[in-house]
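Protein 1 of 2
SEQ + STRUCT:
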Amino acid sequence: MSDQRRNALKTILQLACQLLWVMGLVVGLSGFYLLMKYRHSSLFFSHTYITMPAILALASAAFLLASGFLGTWLSLRDSTFLQGLFVYLLVVVFCLESSASALAYCHSIKLNTETTSLSGVFQNYTGSSQDPNSRAVDATQEQLQCCGVHDYRDWLETSWFNQTGGLSVPHSCCNSTFPSCNGTADQPWQLYPQGCQVKLEMALQFVLSFIIWGSPMVFLVEFVVLLTVAQLMRDKPFIRYHVLDKN
């Protein structure tokens, strides 16, 4: 192989490895965001399996960053051992990304069953700042700008609403555009119109879609990298060995 062509391949490898870094950051951030969403809303999920795509995405991101660093090093020097290790890391990334994408897709199509405990948490609302369930409900309604499970009318069927005289819903339901809102049930236009289940599912769908669609992008970059490394390995100058003269 001419030096000019070999340098061109190394340049392509270096650029592709920079893309691996970018994809590693995107995949890692999506996994981290999913874990944070679960941490803040863990009471609303029936089990912890939804964190598996996030864990696999973070592991994949770590291997992607390591692969990008190793590939950049390979673009500067020739090493058969490092080339083999680089290909091995790419295979590991492929397996992790495939698993994360498959699990993310499975969870994305059954989010309704993932949040089955949402209604129970709202029913057990006490309004006390000492109650972790109540704090989680208020924090969720304020952060997601939602009210009730499906809408504000869900609060009318809770024991807390009856204990307060049936006059108002939690203040966390108040739309921030109405500073004078005090949660009065007979003024529903001052409350957030959407329920928390829809908002929570939309937020989860958003981050799960990043994990799902991140895999094809990673595979495309990996394919380019593997082709480039294969060319470098195939056209590496052959080292001739000579039998030493015993005399």
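Protein 2 of 2
SEQ + STRUCT:
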Amino acid sequence: MDIKFVNVLILGFGFMFVFTSFQTMGNIEKTLLVSIHDDDPSFNGDGYTSLAVIYATFALFNWLAPSFIAFTGPRTAMVVGACTYTFFVVTFLFPSTWLLYVASALLGVGAAITWTGQGSFLARCSDSGNISRNSGIFWALLQCSMFFGNLFVYYEFQNKDQIDYQTRSLVIGVLTGVAVLGVIFLATLRYVPDNSTVDTELRQPQTPWDSARVAFRSAGQLFMTRDMLLLSMAFLYTGFELSFFSGVYGPSIGFTMKISDTPKEIMGLAGICIGVGEVFGGSLFGILASKTTRFGRDPIVIAGYLIHMVAFILIFFNLPDNAPFNDTDSISFFNPPRTWIALLCAFLLGLGDACFNTQIYSMLGGVFVKNSVGAFALFKFTQSVAAAISFFYSSHLGLRAQLGILVVFGTIGAACFCIVEWSAKRRAREESRDVSEISASISSLDK
């Protein structure tokens, strides 16, 4: 089997295990910390604040990630970053407010180098003909993390109004072991030569310091291009909706007391449904990669936008406005709130997210292949800025205001992505026409 394709599979499984640990923790963190505070009132750590610190640090260090990867290479960067995810989960065994936020900041640094390294490594293992397939396969494997982790949490949280110490310790211990397994997978990745050119106008850098300096400068120059500025609006939207479905929507269900006799169980099921949507979307676009390459990425992004709009409308009618904060007996327009609607919306959130992210990965790994490290770093920078902002306002804005922000940025982001995709199609047609004309000229001269 092709070593590059094997690397894509190993990469997907490594991220699946690491993020089975982290995404499951992110989904239950708010609820878990509330239970810890109930047992120990001196503990004042907040789940939304922790996640905001993670993504704020993530955003800041994305600018330095290309330079770090110039020193270490993407494989080492991903292993080091994955270790910070493991440490973050371990700290929940030793509840401390200052340790929670320190681990969150450290995780943000690790996330920057992990995701930038992942984007660069995926581009190295792909070309224009298989980048859509590889992106879909990676995304499907990654999002299995939402399925397996939340299925475990669902069974452990059954019939529990309060998450007791024994249950917390078991969940955290298992998630730690799974994260370690992911680190081991990433450590087995095989070397693949670099297929990018950071700056063709400069002579090849001779030292690691030169490589780091050029990588940083190239990322800044790329950020100011028209296409990247337009794509940044789509990146921002993925950050807002990422924070919503990964850290806000699950607790909102768990805090809505009238949705079920045991709403904490529904929270776990919602996480599973998000994962099913993500895996279904990633698998579908991996299987249909040849067709999406032919017809373009814009139809899938438009479909993702419409799917998310339907989900937001249903959530607006189903959950009360104060659901993100704490246990509430309030209702929205549906009385009582419908469990099946909450789970359907979770599936739609995952499916729509897969539509956006697989096509963004495909575009960055295809259109921006000559500077894949900088392109993926800018994607994760912009996305994590939006996620950090979202988690900060999630502690203060009601559910309806958050949904309104998602609708506005979703509309703008989808439109901007389509503009860039149409421009890329036009350039591809022009280049194909030029090649045909040159070939015809050479043929006429030969005759």
